[in-house]
Design a protein that fits this description.
Blueprint (H helix, E strand, L loop, with lengths): L2 E5 L2 E4 L4 E8 L7 E7 L6 E7 L4 E3 L7 E6 L4 E6 L8 E7 L4 E2 L3 E6 L1
Parallel strand pairs: 2-11
Antiparallel strand pairs: 1-3, 3-8, 4-5, 4-9, 5-6, 7-8, 9-10, 9-11
Length: 113
């Protein structure tokens, strides 16, 4: 069964850290281009970070230098390490396959000032 499951969300004070995980059960080629995005209440879905098969990454300007995306292929898991969190990072975070257009159910991140 093809699926993705996010975990690791929660609450943090500003300046804190959280690590999100995305356990993926995907066809191999689906995992060649994995993405995290987020959606705050009443706002559009925003790109956060992306990791490619070769390990290259890119980030939204708003998280660059604070967030790190990585992929453990042996565990079929994609991570999002979030440091120096800000209240504006509060959102539901989703992971997905940008090739296969498959997305998880999301995990909530709430950052208080």
């Amino acid at each position: 069964q093809v699926q993705l499951q996010e975990s690791g969300g929660g609450s943090s004070q500003a300046g804190g850290s959280l690590r999100l995980s995305c356990a993926a059960s995907l066809y191999t080629y689906c995992a060649y281009d994995m993405i995290w995005f987020r959606q705050a209440p009443g706002k559009e879905r925003d790109f956060v970070a992306r990791v490619y098969k070769d390990g290259s990454t890119n980030y939204a300007d708003s998280v660059k230098g604070r967030f790190t995306i990585s992929q453990d292929k042996s565990k079929n898991t994609v991570y999002l390490q979030m440091n120096t969190l800000k209240p504006e990072d509060t959102a539901m975070y989703f992971c997905g396959s940008n090739i296969c257009k498959l997305w998880g159910q999301g995990t909530q991140v709430t950052v208080s000032s």
